Amino acid sequence: MTNPVVLPVNQPMQGERKERRSGSDFSELSRRITEAGLLRRRPLYYSVRFGLVAFALAGCVGAFVALGDSWSQLFVAVALAVVFGQLGLAAHDLAHQQVFSRRRLSEMGGLLVADLLLGMSYGWWMNKHTRHHANPNHEGKDPDVAPDILVWSRRQARNARGLPRFVGKHQAALFFPLLTLEGLNLSFNSFRALRNPSTKRPVLEGTLLLAHFLVYLGGLFAVLSPAKALVFLAVHQGLFGIYLGSVFAPNHKGMPMIEEGTRLDFLRRQVLTSRNVRGGVLVDIFMGGLNYQIEHHLFPSMPTPALARAQVITERYCAELGVPYHQAGLIDSHRAALRHLRSVGEPLRAAEG
Known about the structure:
Elements: E1 6-7, H1 16-22, H2 25-35, H3 43-67, H4 73-95, H5 103-118, H6 122-134, H7 154-159, H8 162-169, H9 171-179, H10 182-193, H11 202-223, H12 226-252, E2 257-258, H13 266-272, E3 276-278, H14 280-287, H15 293-298, H16 307-321, E4 327-329, H17 330-344, H18 346-352
Parallel strand pairs: 1-2, 3-4
Helix pairs in contact: 2-16, 3-4, 4-5, 4-12, 5-11, 8-18, 9-17, 11-12, 12-17
């Protein structure tokens, strides 16, 4: 069995000594990316993309009203899960100022899409995601690899107690079933975050969140019988959670974890902990550009349609430096993530045996 990769303390990675002699490698890559014009805003692209998502959302609402109290509504639930996934990707791009260069416009758009349409706190998610970008796969600093129900390193597994200890033993098998709860988990944490002093606009966000759930749940139970409404809710939220997890999990899971004290410059910290997902136009649409995870982490405000060209430049540049650059197909990337989950749970299974 392959052990999970951990970058050891104070051990320079391949190419780091060269970086120390030559100065900032990232500044050179940034110069090349800027000269290629890849950081310019793409208003036409986002107008078309967001317009199509809005049209799909309106179509789902129209179909829901037209079908009435029917089990055919489950087809609407499936379609709406995809639309919610695309709304989540839209909120992500707004948060990174990929759409608008002005922070205020980005924030207004993010609040409307995340809080009102998705039922997820924009401020809470922004805080969490910003910390992830600063220190991806860093134990103790990246909230996405903080021990919770799942464990992400063998150290976390050895310290796990209660439910995380039980789940950790079988977390690879339970990963996708647990993702069905991710949509509800996001909403739960969003309401909980309203009491956090770090939340800048608790009243506004609370109002938008309440409006979302009044319309969403009110519409379900007004049109459908209680049994159909609950099944619709389960199908919609379950598939929405799986969609989100399928987009975000392949990007970092199974990549090296960073220990406290490890010295890495910005370029290597982002490249070594990220994995790109190959697959062409369909994967680009499905993952909203996050399949170019390395480039996204290096240039978070880069508009989505520029990422493919940036990928070519970045891969070649990493080859010049001797910095490992990882890509895999969608299925293989999920296999790597699941292998990692199984591997880090090994201490728990060994203790049980």
